[in-house]
């Protein structure tokens, strides 16, 4: 028997229309590419998104067409999120930090019709444009006064392009499984692959982000969205914000410690979201300027994901900022939210070390994502917090394949997606990532977690950043090498760092050697680039 309830498609346009009606005055603050801070509201963004939708129709964009953005976090980018998806086209958020060859590859692979860009990217696009034969038009996201002087075929000015259009626009009733957005994985191995989100997956994901034990976004929050809108849709914040009417603060291109701190303070930010590397820059600034964030900021929670949040970072936020770190795990293929780490009431009885051990875990699956770990024969492993294996996931906002079928079949017969991560899951469901499968260090038939070692090393006061890779070893097959970047002006020897790790990790995990470098290689999304690091140490031999 069928239920008697309405069938309403879940559409991205319904989010902004809901915000326009119920949170019209909730603010969106952006540090603009032109320089000054810009303030607008959900009401105004909804209106301008409808104008932009009319402009897209006028320029001949049809449902299903791909429309690219090359832009930082800001209100015009937000308008395009809604205009493009809402009218039925697909918003392709391009990561400008990729190499030129990768940019060329993905814009051509996605077959983008138009590229909207922040003025700072004009020189990059000028170089690229001759290699993007299918792009029909470029739109600079600015007003006439700030138009960049560059040579691009069919160059338009955003404010002129949409400014004269009517704000009357009826969002089409699309099938909810139509595509709304496209985001490429960073392609650390091989070409980047496209993840094509649907309206349905995006709205369901936004609902999860607004749950208290999800990202806990709500109308009372002011969220600083440091995670870029070109990186998995800024973890869904532009959608979730409209759903609940949270004030959103967009940092634009200025991600340095001083600029981020100023926004935290001046905008009364309560929740900040970003990958670990951006917070290191903030910590350096606070230390150098001898600031007192605990007294000056309202920051209550910091959501960290994308790479493991080291214990030292969790402790600094607690002690220096008075803020709770909420560790989360996800990936482009998961829209990205998969797991969130929040303690349970009974954990209040734990001591500081016990609480920290839990906070360093990536957390429990949010409703909508099922998780399991399996061994090499695909047999499910125990949820005992000890057995570690490949992490598989399944759910309505998990990718079922890649754009244009790249990478072939990615689900197993039961619909599980292999994340490429290795993890444990404890009896309460707390999942702990021990490694990327390709970064695991295999020593004497056992696995050593490079992430656990890195986190322990970053607990040393002289260490700014640490990475651990496996190096070939005659007897043990592989042994860990610790590579460290010291804080400016700080000193520590390899022996001191090894001594610091003793007792924090199993004795046979202790790195055989420590090497010091000026900086570590990172991917376009701020992750350690282990492949490059292994290349850098290709000729390195462990001390006998
Ligand atoms: P990429 O395109 O580089 O894969 P993603 O953001 O999709 O970018 O990366 C997803 C991967 O990032 C995960 O599979 C996992 O390895 C890593 N990751 C994400 N969050 C965490 C976390 N909290 N702790 C450890 N690793 C994480």
Could you outline the blueprint of secondary structure elements for this entry?
Elements: H1 12-22, E1 27-31, E2 37-41, H2 42-58, E3 66-70, H3 75-86, E4 90-93, H4 100-110, E5 114-117, H5 122-128, E6 137-140, E7 155-157, H6 158-163, E8 179-184, E9 194-198, H7 199-209, E10 222-225, H8 232-235, H9 237-244, E11 247-250, H10 257-266, E12 271-274, H11 276-288, H12 293-296, E13 301-304, H13 311-321, E14 324-330, E15 337-340, H14 352-359, E16 364-365, E17 370-374, E18 389-394, E19 417-425, E20 431-436, E21 441-443, E22 446-448, H15 450-457, E23 463-473, E24 477-486, H16 494-501, E25 513-516, H17 530-536
Parallel strand pairs: 1-11, 3-4, 3-5, 4-8, 5-6, 6-7, 10-11, 10-12, 12-13, 13-14, 24-25
Antiparallel strand pairs: 1-2, 8-9, 14-15, 15-16, 17-18, 18-19, 19-20, 21-22, 23-24
Helix pairs in contact: 1-2, 1-3, 1-9, 2-3, 7-9, 10-11
Bound molecules: adenosine-5'-diphosphate.
Adenosine-5'-diphosphate is lined by residues 185-186, 232, 305-308, 327-332, 336, 362, 419-421, 433, 436, 523, 525, 527.
């Amino acid at each position: 028997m069928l239920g008697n309830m309405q069938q309403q498609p879940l559409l991205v346009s319904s989010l902004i229309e809901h915000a326009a009606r119920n949170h019209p005055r909730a603010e969106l603050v952006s540090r603009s590419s032109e320089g000054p801070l810009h303030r607008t509201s959900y009401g105004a963004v909804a209106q301008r998104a409808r104008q932009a939708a009319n402009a897209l129709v006028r320029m001949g964009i049809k449902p299903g067409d791909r429309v690219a953005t090359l832009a930082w976090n800001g209100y015009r980018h937000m308008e395009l999120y809604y205009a493009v998806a809402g009218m039925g086209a697909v918003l392709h958020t391009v990561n400008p930090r990729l190499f030129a060859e990768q940019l060329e590859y993905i814009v051509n692979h996605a077959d983008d019709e138009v590229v909207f860009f922040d003025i700072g990217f004009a020189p990059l696009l000028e170089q690229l444009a001759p290699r993007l034969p299918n792009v029909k038009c470029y739109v600079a996201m600015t007003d006439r006064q700030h138009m960049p002087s560059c040579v691009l075929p069919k160059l338009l000015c955003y404010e002129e392009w949409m400014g004269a259009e009517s704000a009357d626009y009826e969002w089409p009733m699309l099938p909810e499984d139509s595509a709304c957005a496209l985001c490429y994985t960073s392609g650390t191995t091989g070409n980047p692959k496209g993840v094509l989100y649907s309206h349905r997956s995006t709205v369901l994901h936004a609902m999860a982000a607004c749950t208290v034990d999800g990202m806990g976004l709500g109308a009372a929050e002011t969220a600083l969205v440091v995670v870029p809108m070109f990186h998995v849709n800024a973890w869904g914040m532009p959608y979730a914000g409209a759903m609940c009417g949270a004030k959103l603060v967009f940092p634009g291109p200025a991600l340095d410690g001083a600029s981020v701190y100023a926004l935290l303070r001046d905008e009364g930010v309560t929740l900040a979201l970003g990958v670990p590397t951006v917070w290191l820059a903030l910590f350096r600034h606070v230390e150098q300027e001898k600031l007192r964030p605990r007294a000056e900021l309202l920051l209550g929670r910091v959501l960290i994901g994308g790479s493991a949040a080291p214990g030292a970072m969790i402790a600094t936020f607690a002690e220096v900022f008075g803020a709770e770190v909420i560790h989360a795990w996800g990936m482009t293929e998961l829209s990205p939210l998969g797991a969130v780490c929040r303690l349970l009431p009974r954990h209040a009885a734990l001591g500081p070390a016990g609480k920290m051990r839990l906070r360093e875990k990536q957390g429990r699956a949010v409703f909508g994502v099922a998780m399991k770990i399996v061994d090499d024969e695909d047999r499910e492993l125990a949820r005992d917090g000890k057995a570690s294996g490949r992490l598989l996931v399944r759910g309505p906002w998990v990718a079922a394949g890649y754009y244009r079928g790249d990478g072939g079949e990615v689900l197993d017969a039961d619909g599980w997606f292999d994340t490429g991560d290795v993890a444990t899951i404890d009896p309460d469901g707390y999942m702990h990532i021990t490694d990327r499968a390709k970064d695991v260090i295999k020593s004497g038939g056992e696995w050593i977690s490079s992430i656990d070692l890195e986190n322990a090393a970053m607990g040393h006061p002289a260490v700014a950043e640490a990475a651990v890779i496996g190096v070939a070893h005659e007897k043990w097959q592989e042994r860990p090498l610790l590579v460290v970047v010291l804080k400016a002006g700080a000193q520590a020897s390899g022996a001191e760092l090894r001594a610091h790790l003793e007792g924090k990790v199993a004795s046979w995990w202790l790195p055989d050697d420590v090497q010091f470098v000026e900086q570590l290689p990172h991917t376009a999304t701020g992750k350690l680039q282990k492949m490059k690091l292994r290349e850098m140490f290709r000729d390195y031999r462990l001390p006998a």
